[in-house]
Design goal:
The complex is a heterodimer of chains A (119) and B (107). Chain A contains no helices and eleven strands. Chain A is mostly beta strands and 119 residues long. In chain A, strands 2, 4, 5, 6, 9, 10 and 11 form a seven-stranded mixed beta sheet that branches. Chain A has a four-stranded antiparallel beta sheet with strand order 1-3-8-7, with no helix packed on it. By secondary structure, chain B is mainly β. Classes of the chains: A mainly beta (119), B mainly beta (107). At the A-B interface, β10 of A face β4, β5 and β10 of B.
């Protein structure tokens, strides 16, 4: 059973960089799945940020594309999120998730990380 | 981007009731529609994929239907553990988008 374990700081300074990691256990990151990040701002719904395939191919939400990088480390079986120039609008619960392609859905989720943006 | 709209935004119901939640896409998404249950402090849980495929660990009181732009999630005989927020999500194309959610509350 694949599990996702998130790690990373819960407090980021304004204009700083948010960095989170999602470790994959019980399976390989080189499977035929996509590895995604989704966030939920306080009081709002879920927002897809982007995803990566083990080959390095990535897709991002266009409004975040200039600030987001999702990367994969196959040797450590994990993937990461970096979001630069953060503002209060980036405060949210961040989730990593596995998107399987058959059927196409987010089947497995990390536990979530609450990220606060404050100096 | 494909916009997903859910109705109602909130719903009060009692244990044992049957409820139907609606999700509408701004353009056709064929059957690329998923439903998630989200409880406070927990990760979202996939209930239904491809509009009507129940996940193996989900009780049979949950069912989904729809095609094209209009979809429904029905919960028959509500149980206490079903009170949560429900999101629909389209996987037809990137950016993958979610509805704003329907909060199901105890009456």
């Amino acid at each position: 059973q694949v599990q996702l374990q998130q790690s990373g700081p819960g407090l980021v300074k304004p204009s700083g960089t948010l960095s989170l990691t999602c470790a994959v256990s019980g399976g390989s990151i080189s499977s035929s799945d996509w590895w995604s990040w989704v966030r939920q701002p306080p009081g709002k719904g879920l927002e897809w940020i982007g995803e990566i395939y083990h080959s390095g191919i990535s897709n991002y939400k266009s409004s975040l594309k200039s600030r987001v990088t999702i990367s994969v480390d196959k040797s450590k079986n994990l993937f990461s999120l970096k979001l630069t120039s953060v503002t209060a609008a980036d405060a949210a619960v961040y989730y990593c998730a596995r998107r399987s392609i058959a059927p196409d859905a987010f089947h497995i989720w990390g536990q979530g990380t609450v990220v606060t943006v404050s100096s | 981007d494909i916009q997903m709209s859910q109705s109602p935004s909130s719903l009060s119901a009692s244990v044992g009731d049957e409820v139907t939640l609606t999700c509408r896409a701004s353009q056709t998404i064929i059957s690329y529609l998923n439903w998630y249950q989200h409880k406070v402090g927990q990760a979202p849980r996939l209930l239904i994929s491809a509009a009507s495929t129940l996940q193996s660990d989900v009780p049979s009181r949950f069912s989904g239907s729809g095609f094209g732009t209009d979809f429904t999630l029905t919960i028959s005989s509500l149980q206490l553990e079903d009170f949560a927020t429900y999101y629909c999500q389209q996987s037809y194309t990137t950016p993958y988008t979610f509805g704003q959610g329907t909060k199901l509350e105890i009456k």
